Predict the structure.
Amino acid sequence: MTDTAFKNGPLGDLRVLELGTLLAGPFCGQLLGDLGADVIKIEPPNQGDPMRVWGRQKEGEPSLWWPVVARNKRAITLDLRQSEGQELLKQLVAEADFLLENFRPGTLEKWGLGWNELSAINPRLIMIRVSGFGQTGPRAKDPGFGAIGEAMGGLRYVVGDPSTPPSRMGISIGDSLAATFACVGALSALHYREKTGLGQVVDSAIYEAVLNMMESLITDYDKRGFIRERTGAILPNVAPSNVYPTSDGLVLIAANQDTVFTRLALAMGEPELAQHPDYATHHARGAHQAELDERVGRWTSSMTTSAVLAILEKPATAVPSGLIYRAPDMLDDPHFVARNAIVTTQHPTLGELKMQNVAPKLSRSPGGIRSAAPELGQHNDDVYQSLLKLTAERYAALKAQGVI
């Protein structure tokens, strides 16, 4: 394989058929596309992915979310409910590496496009299936949005202040986690295929993706009968690690490791705290978390935010610390700039558009943002006539029938 095959990234020689909508499937497609894969997004004619109109934009204006989740993708239209559409998909599957979908389980099977049918066409196919509850089990065919998976996976219960009902995060974290785990599974299946020549199904459930981020929540209960509760801005028994007041704002300090706390005590002008029996070890600091947070807060509130950070950036008193960023803070931060964490892309109607860059960074075959989000059916000609070699007459007939 030559380096030119990977000019767009490490997955530059692979093709993905993305059938999903909204976020749980398409974010996986975004990750694969960011790393170079040729992602062909398949949408219903005259309808498209609802994400095309979701976001903070005013009604009638282009979506500001769509350009992020649909970047690096080609878009075609195809009605999978029609037999002609199903046959066209099978032709595409014959030349694909991945098929990505997040329909309710059983939907593709109803259309004659399940794993048994598609793997018979292409035994090397890796089928990535993202759903609320997985492809098996008593709840498999229940509707399962991200919010339900976050609650069922244990996240919702522990998010928020203990004085309020459970909160949600300000992003669609359940969908994004399921998509990320789906991407990990897809690349694992790709490695297996390289050794065996065989594809397989990657089954990523939202609730299980959330569950896998819940640290020792299950084990805590199993062995100690302990149920994690909402704790607001802190992690219980991890101290000091909190948001602290300054004379003109707030600062985040994370000094819960023994050596780091020693440096914080020195920065506070109280080096003896590092040897005090109440604070000398991780467990001791956790047992005295509230009083230690109050003590750190008294020190930080006597200075401005910039003064606190200046002290905690010195080598002798270096402690992980920083501000709680919003979008404008990210755009102004020199570290973001130095690492090109936010890039400016060109959008056909929005013009220059800033968004997060590809992560992670690879030293030899980095991914990148090659194209803005496509218009509905923008690449029909490329795919149907150039890739599938449909005749002009056949192509025109399928368009007239509403298949594409």
In short: The chain has two domains: 3-213+343-400, 241-327. The chain has 18 helices and eleven strands.
